[in-house]
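Posting this for the archive.
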Amino acid sequence: MNKKVALVTGSAKRIGKEIVLHLANNNYQPLIHYNQSGKEARNLKKSLIDRGIVSKIIKYDLNNINNIKKFSRECIKKFGTIDLLINNASIFIEDKNSDDRILKNLNINLISTILLSKHIGDHMIKRCSGNIINIGDAICLTNHWTKFSSYTISKMGLDSLTKTFSKNLKNSVRINSINLGAILKPSNKKIRSLYKKNYKTETGITSILNTIDYIIKNKKINGQIFNIDNGEKLMVNAN
C-alpha cells in the first residue's frame, strides 16, 4: 500500500510531535517542519527511522511570510506530493504595545497559515485530492484576553479561513479546524493562569488524534470546526 504524505507544521515537539507519531503509524510519511527546534526534529526523525518509517524534516520561519510560496514548493518536492496539511505551528506571546510582537502573532498564527493553505491547496486541487486541518484555540474566542489581542484575532481568523476556504478549494480538497483547550501547559508560566484547567495529557492528545482520524475518514466533512476543550470555553475568564 502506497503511503500518503503529511506536512505538519511546528511538529518537532509537543502536540505536533504526537500528531506526527500517530500519522506515521497510520500509513503516512511525515514531513516534520520546525524553526528553532532542530535537535528535537532530528531526534523525532531518528525515532521514526528506528521503527522503519521514512520521514523528512524541513526548517522554515513562518514569520517570514514573503517566501511562503517558495517554502510550499520545497515542501512538495520533499516527497513529490502532499496529501495532508496540518497547520499546527503557533506562538502565544503578549502584545506589549509592540508592532513586532503583534505582527509576529498574526504572521505565524494566521497569515502564514492562509498562504500555506492556498499554495498547498492549489497543489491538492491539481491532484483532485487532499485534506487541510487547522489547529486553533477554543478558549480565546470567547474569553478575549486584553494582553493577547493579536493572538486572539489570529485564532478568530483561523475559523474564518476554514469556512471560506472550504468553498474555494473545490470539493475534492477539504479543510476543517480543531480548536483546543489547554491540552498541555503553556511553556511560559505567566501564561498558564489564563486557562482554568489543564487536561491530562494522554486524554487530551488522544482526543485530538481521534478527531483528526474522524475528519480524514469522513469524506463529507468540510468547513467544520471541532472544539476539544472539555467545555472550558463556557467558563468566565476574568483575565
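DSSP finds six helices and seven strands in the chain. Helices lie at 14-24, 38-50, 68-79, 99-127, 149-168, 201-217.
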